[in-house]
Amino acid sequence: MRISSLQMFNVARNSMAEANRDIMRTQEEMSAGKRILTPADDPVASTKILQLTDELANIDQYLKNLDIAENNLTLEESILDSVVNIIHRVEEIAVAAGNTAALTDKEYKALAAEVSARMDEMLNLLNTRNANGDYIFGGYKSGSEPFAGDAFSGFQYRGDDGQQYIKVTNNTKIATTDSGKSAFLDVQSANKTIETSASPTNTSNPPAKISVGQVVSQKDYDAFYPEDIVITFNDDGALSPPGKNFTATERTTGRVIVANQPYVPGDEIVMKGVSIRISGSPASGSQAVPATRAFGADVPPSFPVDFSGNSETFSITVGGRTERLVLNGNITDVNDLVANLTSTANGNAARLARLGIQVDFQGFRMPAGVNMTIAYGSANADAVLGLNASTGSASSDGVQAVPGDQFFIDSSERQGILTTLARFKEAMESFDGSAEGKTKLSDVIASTLSNLSNGLTSVVNVQTKIGARLNVLEGVRDLHLDTQLVNKKIVSQLRDLDYAEAATRLSQQSLILQAAQQSFIRVSRLNLFDRL
After folding, report:
1. The pTM is what?
2. Are 258 and 204 contained in the same domain?
3. Which of 515, 500, 501 is nearest to 19 (CA)?
4. What is the pLDDT of residues 337-357, one digit of tens each?
5. Cα separation, 425 vs 437, whole angstroms
6. What is the DSSP-derived secondary structure letter of residue 289?
7. What whole-number distance in Å separates Cα of residue 215 and Cα of residue 45?
8. 162-221 tens-digit pLDDT
9. Total count of domains within the chain
């Protein structure tokens, strides 16, 4: 077989190029420190490496989440420790305040000042923000202060019941916050108690306020419980001489507790065993303007009309309620008409009473100010009434009463920690040294100690939950770190280069290239031209 010079040169070139490629590949592996440079190098191992890399990236994120959760819970735990310290200090003050026989008014005011300072301190703690600027006790509404208010009118919670969670494993989420409502407001009260508030529709400017209030007679209030009280400011004309006044009613029944009571800003108001104060100038209400429909308002009355043989009816509608009034007997004038319309014998009196309508010699009158419609009558009814009862005749002058500012005293079985401090402070500030005052203060102190104990229990329960969550975070962190270590080891085994093996291989490949070069030099001289 004859081998051409071109064929010989091609074989040598290809052999040296392949050897050179092997050397370059090995050098790239050594430079990168990896044996797999592209997925084509080892498809199975590349797939496994991709899966493990994704898992390692998830673990890195979970570890960051764990740091965030741990920082938030540690901050919350620190805040709760401070709250517990405040509760303990106020308990000490309450025990000292129990010595009503020895302490003076000034000493109680000094104790009240410290309680006030502790209350402000606790309010600031409950409005603490975390590193992200979120309020830690606001629930989902973490962008605004959850607690607001003051010692006089009490404290309101503007957050919600939500808890913010963070994902720490593929199927595990950990709560990193707690609702301030469940921790500090929904505390079981030692006794049945109250919550006070002003209606959001009040119009006074600046807004009038209602105090946090006290239960001054537990026996009287327990008998009234669980009813709520609504305080409504009336038209000034309800008093003589005119002046601001209010009426208190039961919320569910509307039953009047006190009516048209003169209002003096800041004075104590006591009812049903409850004591409250209202400050400011509440907006007064307005009285109703009666709705009227006078006899003869539409057409001149015409008498007589005898309904003795055949009675007729017409309807009156007020606020969606309709009654049919009977016309019977011989009606010769207005006196007969009024007697007929107010008769008990034919049932008209009861029907008018159900509608709240009065009838006199002038006509129909609705004191509540709700307009009325007279209809479905006959021509005879039109004649005696002087109204278009057949086609419809309606009043238009009625104006309903408009209530003034309203304040609510709601029954409750729970009392927030801040409310407990506010009531304790108020009781000490209002102590007058009398025997009745000592009894009242002693009752408040006993209630305060019980409520502080309940509040402490609520806070400690939250601390217990935080401790459990921190333990879970610690266990999850250890698991992630162990998994991370194992995955990195597997990835290293699959991807990282064995430098000793690579160095040996490079030396071998260099030797092959050198041998190929030397062989080509020798073989290339085997031609006829060298023999000429």
Report:
1. 0.74
2. yes
3. 515
4. 999 999 999 999 999 999 999
5. 14
6. B
7. 76
8. 888 999 988 889 999 999 998 999 999 999 999 999 999 999 999 999 999 999 999 999
9. 2
